[in-house]
Write a structure and sequence with these properties.
Layout lengths: L1 H17 L6 H11 L4 H12 L23 H12 L4 H17 L15 E6 L2 E6 L1 H11 L4 H6 L11 H23 L1
């Protein structure tokens, strides 16, 4: 979850430094927002449900937000084109921040990403079932989610730090990553103004 934030932060920070500019905290914060771009529809849905006091869609099927075009390999080139048309000087960091999102979702705590959507419904996952990469059909994924999925995953990973299917340290490390990201953004404002 917070690895996306750190990736976007670092990509935008490195871009500023590579161009010989003092990193701007606002530019780096924009990197965080851009890195989450593939999840925007899901975040908007969650915020809408919170405002309407409805149950949040966080359960063992939370991975379905990764099933569309925004997590596929076809989304970053589309973003690259739109960025080139709107603000061409930022196309490189925006492209890499968006690409980083899907790459991180390939190995994180979720069930993988439909990399070739809409041309393929297979979900790809790195370092799963003892293999480097696995391509799961929708039926295979559904079976695995039914067997291993947990409606309480969010609490177990980020509050209890006790999920039997994950390394015990994943939640604390991810939360620390969020703290590092915030400290990078705010220290950038203090150091470079």
């Amino acid at each position: 979850m917070f690895f996306h934030a750190l990736a976007g932060c670092l990509i935008f920070m490195i871009f500023d430094i590579a161009l010989g500019r003092a990193p701007s905290w606002l530019f780096i914060a924009a990197g965080v927002v851009v890195a989450y771009m593939p999840d925007w529809p899901y975040v908007i849905e969650c915020l809408t449900r919170l405002c309407l006091r409805k149950k949040l869609p966080i359960n063992k099927y939370s991975h379905v937000h990764r099933d569309g075009i925004m997590h596929s390999l076809f989304f970053p080139p589309l973003v690259l084109l739109l960025t080139w048309l709107a603000i061409p000087e930022y196309q490189v960091p925006v492209f890499f921040a968006v690409v980083s999102h899907s790459l991180l979702d390939l190995w994180g705590i979720g069930w993988g990403v439909k990399l070739f959507y809409p041309f393929s419904k297979k979900t790809f996952k790195l370092f799963f079932q003892g293999k480097w990469i696995v391509a799961l059909s929708p039926q295979e994924l559904e079976t695995i989610v039914e067997q291993k999925g947990d409606d309480e995953w969010l609490r177990k990973v980020y509050i209890d730090f006790n999920s039997p299917d994950l390394f015990w340290w994943y939640g604390p490390v991810d939360l620390a990553t969020g703290a590092i990201t915030l400290s990078l953004i705010f220290s950038t404002k203090v150091i470079w103004g």
